[in-house]
Amino acid sequence: MLRSSLAGLCIALCAPASAQDLTVATWGGAYEAAQRQAVFAPFSEATGHTVEAVEYDGTVVALRDRAEAEGWDVIDMLADQARVACAEGLLLRLDAEALTGSAALADFTPHAPTRCAIPQNVYARVMAYDERAFPGIKPTRIEDFFDTARFPGKRAVQHGPDGILEWALLAEGVPPEQVYGLLSTDRGLRLAFRKLETIRDDILWWDDPAQPAQMLAEGRAVMAAGFNGRFFDVAKRGAVPVDIVWDGRIIGTEVWAIPADAGSVLLARSFLTHALQPATMARFSERIPYGPARASAFERIGLNPETGVPMRVHLPNAPQHGGRALVRDAAWYANTRDLRQRRFRSWLDRAE
Amino acid sequence: MQGIILRLRLVRRALNAEYVRMSVGHHSPPARPVIRMVILTATALCVGAAASFAAIAFVELVSMLNSALLVAPRARVQWEALPWLITLATLLVPTLGGLCVGLLHRHLSPERRPLGPPDVIRAVQFHRPLPDTRSGLVSSLTAVVSLGTGASVGQYGPMVYLGALCGGAVRNLRAGVPNLDGIAISCGVAAAIATAFNAPIAGLVFAHEVVLRHYATQAFAPVTVASVTGYVIANVVFERPALFLVDFAGVAHGYEFALFALLGLLVSLAAIGFMRLVLACGPWIARLISHPALRPGAAGLAVGLTALALPDVLGIGTETLRFATIEGAFGQGELVVLILAKILLTALCVGAGFSGGVFSPALLIGSLIGALFWVLVSGAGGIPTSGVAVYAIGAMMAFASAVIGAPLTCILIVFELTRNYDITIAAMVAVVFSNLVSHRLFGRSLFDIQLARRGMDFSRGRDRAHLAALPVRDLLSAEAVTMTPENTPEEIARHLTERGWRQAFVLDAGGKLVGVYSPGEGQHPATLTFEDDTSLADAMERMRGFVGDAVPVVARKDGRYLGAVSEADMVSAWLDHVARIREEENAAL
Prior knowledge:
heterodimer; A: D-Maltodextrin-Binding Protein, domain 2; D-Maltodextrin-Binding Protein, domain 2; B: Clc chloride channel; 23 helices
């Protein structure tokens, strides 16, 4: 690994002295800010190449329309989008072994590198609750999300079938490995909606990922389904005691990829070599609660440089979280979108 | 006359040689104990690893085919936007799979049929080689095709055979270890089960309970090693999860154990019906469709047609098995229809010659019956229970145990699959009651009945089965004296004294037995004759009260005299066999 990263650095360093720019397409916001500090700046420092970040919406459409015109060299994507883009030939094939060294391949978790994409960090859809609502017994399992008798109050849920159907089956006692198999059958969907029906009157729907945390903070909901980073932010910023239940977390993967028509492929490769090192991943995870995609990076994760919060415990894939974890099946998600939307709509309309 | 005697003698010699080879196997002289230990351990490790890899490859291949051919729900749902494609695949995949299986058996397999646990049991029990390797490989291939294309058959039978195939390769080593052939096969079987279920204890017990049928240390130790090897490969190398994790807090009410027993009794009746249907379906389809290669295709079409309305019948049904443990996943009527459909289709597929076992379908049918029982008891009966899961799992194992005749294995499989002690205790009750009834009313297992129909009956013990498989024809004595009505009494008397016999057998011109002649008493009809298919076991029983040197053996179809078997030879053959079994069952190394 060391040798190949040195090789990567050498390629970068041996490039012409007139510092060439690298264009990275990414998500913007706090996420990009963390990337700047943890990934881009150290790369520029080491190689002398500046990194320019371009914000995009994460879709394949954007990649198709903008990548060539804007000269994207590296792109930060969701694993399922990368899968689609790869199949369409929009991404360069990557040799993960050459980029990270052969020993590192087994270090990637929960997903190994694929043909065109190498995992960089993971996020999770989790359940969070307002501590103030449950002074006594607190929810600890995904079953509690559906248990309005023991834990009364409104639940903030995304207005759509994503995530909640998985939880419904987990709450029926289905082990994570079988959730997507069962959801693939008509019977499984019926069971999931039956479970959802039990909390129908207690659901507050949200569309913007910022809303669930907000609803908790404002006391409109007592439990919420949302993304772990958002809940972390709310808890960090305000004095809102929001706690995350890690049981039933649905883990998604964020990957690095190189567009097929990238201008500076060599430089892009050396950037990936740098970005995929455990130390880089750990620096990133210290700034924003997205877990590293390599197991060995966990050992390096310490305090958030601004707030001094120990970050390891806030990462979705931290080894110390017990409970069930479900790894999002990107291909299944992409191919069943219509069906799930349709079933979700018809369930919603059945409301009296 | 002399010519005939000479020819008979040659035949007898050949038969005797065959008998000796069969009864003691082709053993070289026993090696030193240390060497034997090393060989046994090495065999266990190699066979265990090979069987385990084979089982994993098998499962992976099947699951790849299931995804590629739109059999698995997870694959089907992703093409949901094209309903005609799903319909077409549902109809065509099992049909073409069946045709493919039929043609492969017809043209590539010398045995022309799928092989399974009964063939393994036969090989191990009678120290014979497995059917030829080519048939075995074709059978494994057709099993992959059968399961991959969604036929309603099980995967564990073929995996057991695949494991046995790995062990069978050891037979050709003349290593100087007695019983090595059977032990090696059992090692393969144990490792395959240990890998497939992620259940090493169940693998070990299955190999003993179903295949070896004794618990000698010589076999127990290597089979354990092989089983653990399979487990290590499945768990440490490939990290396969436990198959059937269930959350279960414990049995809530004491009276539920009575319900489990009742469930076991009911399930066994269903299992008996299922097994009878499986046995009856083969001949029925054979009468219906004369061309053997077309039969699986027809059964496949039946599966496809049913699956259009009831997709749960397609393939192994992992999802359906899980649904059975969830309350309210099925309606009452739905359960009844599904149980009947699965029973009929499995019998049809197995009978039609799809390559595959009956264990996984048995698990599925059993769990659905358990769910139905629970619906009736808790819904209609209004009795408070501790949830559907324990009933589904108890019935699942009770059904499977009746079919494979292995209660201990089934109890341990529950334990290792669910890793839950309370469920195991509950399932145990259902399992034994089911076994009790099915053993009494049907037989020990489907395998044993299938073997019994091929003339190998284990219902009265291993020793009896061994003796029953040994025809007295193989023990014909070369020295027996025959005469024709033309021979003078003096000639006969001289012959008899020369050979030390007191009786001669009188044959007519066509070689038919006419009677028995002894000097002093003259000629009288034979008091006892054996036929060419009389077994040693029958012979020993018919010998009660018999007085004389030897019993003549005649051809059943035309009464032609074949030779005579002396009482002494029969007794020594019997002693040899009993001694051999005793040695095998008590061998330490």
